[in-house]
Amino acid sequence: MSAVTGAAHSVAAFDDKRAEAFAERLVDILNSGALTLMTSIGHRTGLFDALAAMGPATSQEIADSAGLNERYVREWLGAMTVGNIVEHDPGTGTYHLPPEHAACLSRRSPTDNVAVFAQYIPLLGTVEDDIVHCFRHGGGVPYERFGRFHEIMAEDSGQSVIPALEEHILPLVPGLKQRLEQGIRVLDAGCGRGKAINKLAALFPNSHFTGYDISSEAIALAREEAHELGNTNVTFEVRDLTDFDRRAEPAAFDFITTFDAVHDQADPAALLRGIRRALADDGIYLAQDIKGSSHHHEDCDHPIGPLLYTLSCMHCMTVSLASGGEGLGAMWGREKALEYFQAAGFGDIDVHELDHDFQNYWYVCRPQHPTA
User: Fold this and answer.
1) Which residues contact 276 (CB under 8 A, 6 or more apart)?
2) Does the keyword Iron apply (predicted)?
3) N- or C-end of the chain: fewer Cβ atoms within 10 A?
4) What percent of the chain is predicted at pLDDT more than 70?
């Protein structure tokens, strides 16, 4: 046998054990995907909240507590039982959500509710046909096709960003809290429903806050929340930031933030140049963006790498491409992010990680000033 033939035979060798192990993994993936859908339903219907507040109860008692149809609740409880999420006592016919499970699945845990993230999977499923079309013909899926995206993002940031703002995020910039207390001008570019900026406006009444977002629905809800909170120091505006590099008012703000809002822009480089243009020379730009590398192989150990790449492919990348944009995607990575920040005119960039947050990097960017 020649060396070439031997090498080909070695490559073609079929490992039965490896095939069996991979088939078992695929079955696990299918089961996990199904449970993710049911977890989303349990969150949206309040079933996990009802179970967390109850001891062992029958399907009828659980349905009555949540105000739902018993037959559907019973079948859902079947999935939760065989998925080892809910415990079932066949002798009494009761179901029970262990407190250790409730800690990750109910609204009693405002910062650790994994069920919030489960909602992304069925949402992405609604655009699967559109995405398949894009695979075959190019282009993208526009933002308006993602019906509940802003709602889910607001809930996501409501437990990951908002609770951490005062204690963990603002201290990343030395002296920032003092400046906010004294009174400065703040912009949140791509503010969504305005959860972060409304929280800041309530905390620092001497500062003035502005929020821009392309979604009129999101801006309407941001204004409504501002009114409910009594925030008179915040302004929200529907605005497309594609041309922000040309239309931003120079040096209009002392502090600018983006929360997971750069990579899905049609023209992220233009947005960043606009942020630099709008920032005072002694101002600070704080960017939250997805933690990852610009090289796929370096993300293999990321705890939610598959989820983030799926979100990138089926939302972040495609909404940008739908606008004729660059399609960076959520997993553009730290290396490329630093390139973009530097090209936009930020010369002093610190990259931070927070102990409670394995999903994001926090970039503190200061303007680069021309040398004399």
Assistant:
1) 285, 344, 345, 346, 367
2) no
3) C
4) 96
Residue 5 has pLDDT above 90, yes or no: no
Q: Tell me the CATH number for domain 3-107.
A: 1.10.10.10
**Measured at the alpha carbon of residue 112, what is the angle toward residues 74 and 156, in degrees to the nearest 5?**
90
Query: Could you identify the residue written with the tokens 């926090």?
Result: 362
Residues of the chain with CATH 3.40.50.150: 125-367
Residue 95 parent element (H or E):
strand 94-96
Q: Name the pTM for this structure.
A: 0.89
Cβ-contact 368, 356 below 8 angstroms: no
- Residues facing residue 290 across a β-bridge: 360
Best CA proximity match to 244, nearest among 279, 193, 220, 289? 279
Residue 372: what pLDDT?
A: 41
For 274-305, the pLDDT digits (tens) are: 999 999 999 999 999 999 999 999 999 999 99
Residue/partner pairs of 92-98 with CB below 8 Å, 24 or more apart: 92/56, 93/58, 93/59, 94/56, 94/57, 94/58, 95/51, 95/56, 95/57, 95/58, 95/59, 95/62, 96/51, 96/55, 96/56, 96/57, 97/48, 97/51, 97/52
Numbered ranges of CATH 1.10.10.10 in the chain: 3-107
**Tokens 């019973």 sit at which residue?**
74
DSSP-derived 3-state class of residue 264: coil
Residue 288 parent element (H or E): strand 279-290
Distance of alpha carbon 95 from its chain centroid, rounded?
Answer: 32
The DSSP letter of residue 299 is G
In terms of Cβ atoms closer than 10 Å to its own Cβ (0-12, 13-18, 19+), residue 155 is: buried
Amino acid residing at 342: Q
* Packing angle of the helix pair 195-203, 216-229 (nearest 10 deg): 30
Tokens found for residue 60:
């009828």
pLDDT at residue 6, rounded to an integer: 52
Q: In 10 A of CB 128, how many CB atoms?
A: 11
Rounded CA gap, 22 and 293, in Å?
A: 26
Place 153 in a pLDDT band, splitting at 50, 70 and 90.
Answer: confident
